[in-house]
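Methods: holo model generation. Sequences were used as deposited, without trimming of termini or removal of tags, and paired with ligand SMILES retrieved from the corresponding compound records. Each pair was processed once, and we did not select among multiple samples. The sequence and flavin mononucleotide SMILES for this entry were:
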Amino acid sequence: MAPSQAPALAADDGCGIDVADGRHLRDAFGRFATGIVIVTTQWGGERIGATVSSFNSVSLSPPLVSFCIARSAHAIDVWENTPSFGISVLARDQAELSTRFARSLSDKWAGVATRPAARVPAPLIDGALMWLECQAYARYDGGDHVILLGRVVAATVNNHVAQEPLLFYGAAYRHLAPKTPQEKIPDNAMWLHGW
Ligand SMILES: Cc1cc2nc3c(=O)[nH]c(=O)nc-3n(C[C@H](O)[C@H](O)[C@H](O)COP(=O)(O)O)c2cc1C
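and the model returned the structure below.
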């Protein structure tokens, strides 16, 4: 539909926001629910990590994932140069770790249980739902962020924790609600399963 044909919003359909206002734009972006990962790497003998909700799967062949890191991040030089990194997908009981790795602390790692990665020199967070080991594949300009693409060289699913993710929505941590009968996928939506 051409922009001129788009139906006008009724006054009570919503509220336009000023996209130049970072606070309002952040609130709008926050209506998109995500999981949370901690991205990690090893740099100059130091362990580096940051909490990230901008993680996404990108490609199956080759296997690629992405995340965006702010140019204002303390460790931005590392993320712009590291040849590899790890991804730990947080489980529902790991909100405290998410908050810890979202702070520019001098030692985010004190008391954090890790497991070594098999294929890249990155510490992985114990108790996560799933771990990916990635080689840096590409970096792109993302405005006030840098977009990193990683080629997945190893993936491990943790069968020892309940298969429940930590979620982020509306600037708050959330958990999945239990499935209810009304949420059963209708037969005509079976094509979704291929995705
Ligand atoms: C739930 C959550 C999601 C976040 N997602 C991102 C993100 O996608 N990209 C980003 O650059 N920072 C994100 N942050 C903020 C970083 O975790 C934070 O700036 C961190 O301090 C960066 O590490 P550093 O400054 O020590 O390098 C997020 C924080 C939280 C709590």
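The longest helix spans residues 22-29.
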